[in-house]
Amino acid sequence: MAGSTDFDLYRPAEEHDMLRETIRALAESKIAPFAAEVDEEGRFPQEALDALVASDLHAVHVPEEYGGAGADALATVIVIEEVARACASSSLIPAVNKLGSLPVILSGSEELKRKYLGPLAKGDAMFSYALSEPDAGSDAAGMKTKAVRDGDFWVLNGVKRWITNAGVSEYYTV
Q1: Average pLDDT for residues 37-47, to the nearest whole number?
Q2: How far apart are CA 161 and CA 137, in angstroms?
Q3: From CA 118, how far away is CA 58, in angstroms rounded?
Q4: CA dihedral in degrees (153, 156, 162, 166; nearest 10)?
Q5: Beta partners for 153?
Q6: What is the pTM of this model?
Q7: Exposed, middle or buried by CB within 10 Å (0-12, 13-18, 19+), for 158?
């Protein structure tokens, strides 16, 4: 059966195909018209964020119990890929929302999940992921930034460089 043209093992589910059609249409109509301007001006693609939020496609990976769509990894990648077809810069909105929020989803307390994932799912907040450092680049094993507990607080000490969506995100994962 592997040689058969009707072998569907690797064919995406119908829901994924419908999602691709939806996000492609959105990207072509609402994101692509601003792509050259975004790149030429080196600015944040606010039009893309607004369009993605209005269509609930900015953070599809957020679990349903926190107000998200609960989309699987393939659906998330489809959103990122289709936005990137229209504007590579804009694709970092859903990509970094996932990258920055994944530690909260996987390891956060219930309190943290409710506090941060709800606003993300509603489109009231965005995540950034602060990894790059002067001496380590994006090598996580080479990071020198440390968080040290000081009473009821944590003191964060280090230097970061090139934080995607810095200045527009409400939440930063370090």
Answers
A1: 96
A2: 8
A3: 13
A4: 20
A5: 150
A6: 0.87
A7: middle
